[in-house]
Design brief:
Elements lengths: L1 H24 E6 L10 E5 L6 H8 L4 E6 L8 H7 L3 E3 L6 H12 L3 E4 L16 H9 L3 E7 L14 E7 L13 H18 L19 E4 L1
Length: 227
């Protein structure tokens, strides 16, 4: 029942004020939307350059995303309550958060899309190193991973950019799985984290790849402009 109410509230927000704001202040070029699985559990992993990334991805993604978000956001008056009502998952960053891990696994068992920024914080325009959480959850659940790169948002600051138009580029890769394992080791988590970050880097233009600058060029995908 709670999940259903969260879903109703989530789509009410997306289909009303979130998309209205995006239509007003952004234009978007999206590649690889055909790669998005329409059903089943999915871990969405993205780079995180600015505060504009989550609302743009939320407003353009065709499925409900249960975002993992830093615990501090839930303490903000009014907005914190909205995050909870939308089914976001609070997480204590850079430490083992078993409660967040259990909640994320529960979301995947309900065949939701779990949204994660593996860097753990905004990186300001150059891809940083990944934290182990995304790989750990993928290894524990066996859920497929869909990497996405977003750029053009690296200079967005709020509330300043509520009054000027931003062009965002979004590129989706092909879904992939981390190797199955009977017993998860630190080495497997580290290797899985590196693979997730490599997949994201491959979708970014070279100048944004940062610590993963040697990543391969992405496979071209059909683009579609919005706004």
């Amino acid at each position: 029942m709670i999940n259903r109410l969260q879903g109703v509230f989530y789509w009410f927000c997306v289909l009303t004020w979130i998309r209205l704001i995006l239509l007003t202040i952004t234009s978007r070029e999206i590649e690889g939307r055909a790669n998005i699985p329409r059903h089943g559990a999915l871990i969405l992993t993205s780079n995180h350059f600015s505060v504009g990334d989550p609302p743009i991805l939320t407003g353009t993604f065709p499925r409900r995303i249960a975002w993992m978000a830093k615990r501090e956001l839930f303490d903000i008056p009014i907005f914190g309550k909205l995050y909870s009502m939308g089914g976001f998952i609070p997480v204590r960053r850079f430490e083992g958060d078993l409660h967040a891990l259990r909640m994320s696994q529960r979301a995947l068992r309900r065949s939701l899309v779990l949204g994660m920024f593996p860097e753990g914080t905004r990186s300001g325009g150059r891809l940083g190193r990944g934290e182990p959480g995304s790989a750990l959850i993928a290894l524990r659940t066996g859920a497929p991973i869909l990497s996405v790169a977003i750029w053009g948002t690296e200079n967005v600051k709020l509330p300043r950019d509520l009054f000027r138009r931003t062009h965002a580029n979004i590129r989706y890769g092909q879904p992939f799985h981390l190797p199955e394992t009977q017993r998860i080791t630190k080495e497997q988590v580290a290797s899985g984290t590196e693979e997730i970050m490599r997949q994201i880097a491959a979708l970014l233009p070279p100048q944004y790849r940062g610590a993963h600058a040697m990543g391969p060029e992405p496979v071209p995908a059909a683009a579609r402009s919005e706004g």
